[in-house]
Amino acid sequence: EPEVTQTPSHQVTQMGQEVILRCVPISNHLYFYWYRQILGQKVEFLVSFYNNEISEKSEIFDDQFSVERPDGSNFTLKIRSTKLEDSAMYFCASSTGSGAGQYFGPGTRLTVT
Amino acid sequence: KNQVEQSPQSLIILEGKNCTLQCNYTVSPFSNLRWYKQDTGRGPVSLTIMTFSENTKSNGRYTATLDADTKQSSLHITASQLSDSASYICVVSAEERGSYIPTFGRGTSLIVHP
């Protein structure tokens, strides 16, 4: 069964550094998403992406964040200057349609020290 | 402000028993409601998706109901198994200008004991 993959599984970085989290969505999916989950808290929507542009973003997704689909398979989330409070599990998801069920990846645990 | 409230926060049951998880929401304009299962340290896995016109939907031992008038949903798990131990998350999406914005509940932590 096709699945969403994410790399790395765990990333440790120092405050102020840039990080890029990578995702490979399911190949025939057209919509891509990033979510985060701070330890012990609920999942929070960050951004949705379709047709090579952001379709929706939350208040969390400020100028420190950016997304890109650099080629036909990868979908990345960049955090320009990480803060301690960016420490969380980041999930990528993809779907065939905007209202369709989303398939989540296993997540990348980001630890900012 | 769109909100999704789930109850109970946690639940412990014995293997083989049934249980029902609740979800109340104030999301507008409503588009769809999904239930996810999230194992510890893993990504959520979709169980059911329901639109406004659907009252009930089943996926194996999982049955979700939706009352759009009262803005309530439930997830019923029958004949629970040890592998059902996980967090169950209710997600309600609003549709705005063709885009879907999901609001997540905090989840119900279910523990199934042998």
Keywords:
heterodimer; A: 113 residues; mainly beta; B: mainly beta; six-stranded mixed beta sheet; globular
Structural features, described:
The complex is a heterodimer of chains A (113) and B (114). Chain A has strands spanning 5-7, 10-13, 19-24, 31-37, 43-50, 53-57, 65-68, 75-79, 88-95, 103-104, 108-112. Chain A has 113 residues and is mainly β. In chain A, strands 2, 4, 5, 6, 9, 10 and 11 form a seven-stranded mixed β-sheet that branches. Chain A has a four-stranded antiparallel β-sheet with strand order 1-3-8-7, with no helix packed on it. The N and C termini of chain A lie far apart (37 Å). The model of chain A has no long low-confidence stretch (mean pLDDT 93). Chain B is 0% helix and 64% strand. Chain B contains no helices and eleven strands. The mean pLDDT of chain B is 93.
Could you give the topology of this structure?
The complex is a heterodimer of chains A (113) and B (114).
Chain A: E1 5-7, E2 10-13, E3 19-24, E4 31-37, E5 43-50, E6 53-57, E7 65-68, E8 75-79, E9 88-95, E10 103-104, E11 108-112
Parallel strand pairs in A: 2-11
Antiparallel strand pairs in A: 1-3, 3-8, 4-5, 4-9, 5-6, 7-8, 9-10, 9-11
Chain B: E1 3-7, E2 10-14, E3 19-26, E4 30-38, E5 45-51, E6 56-59, E7 62-67, E8 72-77, E9 86-96, E10 99-104, E11 108-113
Parallel strand pairs in B: 2-11
Antiparallel strand pairs in B: 1-3, 3-8, 4-5, 4-9, 6-7, 7-8, 9-10, 9-11
